Amino acid sequence: MADNKGLRINEQIRVREVRLIDSEGAQKGIVPIIEALRMAKEQELDLVEVSPTANPPVCKILDFGKYRFEQEKKLRDSKKNQKVLKIKEIRMQPKIGTGDLDTKAKHVQDFLDEGDKVKVTIRFRGRELAHTELGYEVLKEVMKRLTSTYVVEKPATMEGKFLSMTISAKAKN
């Protein structure tokens, strides 16, 4: 039963009577389970419990293999259309050179252009913690170098030895 994704078919259905839908989708009404199984076997199809919580349970006569394939195909198609949101992280130090800063800003820009969120992190070591304002200046410089429009999702905040902020690309209308 585990491979049937929780659906009960044919002899696995253990109720006295079911609300039956035939292979064309027409309502047959409330039918004893033995009669429903006989009708399914005559058409060389399966009796599948599509709504077990209803009273009485709703069963449908269909080709179970084909039905399961269609369900999996729908699931694959829905996953194909989803956009997975990634958070990229760029790490720097407060005493970063201008060339390195340009490179890091370009990386941030590339990630934003791809539609990812970017977490820009400044790591302070030792005595640098006494001068966190340098980290804020570095973050401002990174933001000045960005060419596309962006949204600051989480403003710059200190978290232990790290100063970080999260930005994302502005939605295109």
Characteristics:
173 residues, four-stranded mixed β-sheet, alpha/beta, 4 helices, single chain
Secondary-structure blueprint of this entry?
Elements: E1 17-21, E2 27-32, H1 33-42, E3 46-51, E4 58-62, H2 64-80, E5 87-92, H3 98-113, E6 117-123, H4 132-145, E7 150-159, E8 162-169
Parallel strand pairs: 1-4, 5-6
Antiparallel strand pairs: 1-2, 3-4, 6-8, 7-8
Helix pairs in contact: 3-4
Beta content:
25-35%
Biggest β-sheet strands, sense, barrel: 4 strands, mixed
Please bin the fraction of helical residues.
25-40%
Straight-line N-to-C gap? 47 Å
SS-based structural class?
alpha/beta
The count of helical stretches stands at 4
Radius of gyration: 30 Å
How do the SSEs run, as a string of H and E? EEHEEHEHEHEE
Which sequence of strands runs across the widest sheet?
2-1-4-3
Mean pLDDT figure: 85
Number of DSSP strand runs? 8
Shape: rod-shaped
Regions with little confidence, pLDDT below 50 for 5+ residues: none
Would you mind describing this structure in some detail?
With 173 residues, the protein is of the alpha/beta class. The strands form two sheets. It has a four-stranded mixed sheet with strand order 2-1-4-3. The chain has a four-stranded mixed sheet with strand order 5-6-8-7. A hairpin with a 2-residue loop joins β7 and β8. The model has no long low-confidence stretch (mean pLDDT 85).
Summary of the model, kept short:
The protein is of the alpha/beta class and 173 residues long. It is 33% helix and 31% strand. It is rod-shaped.
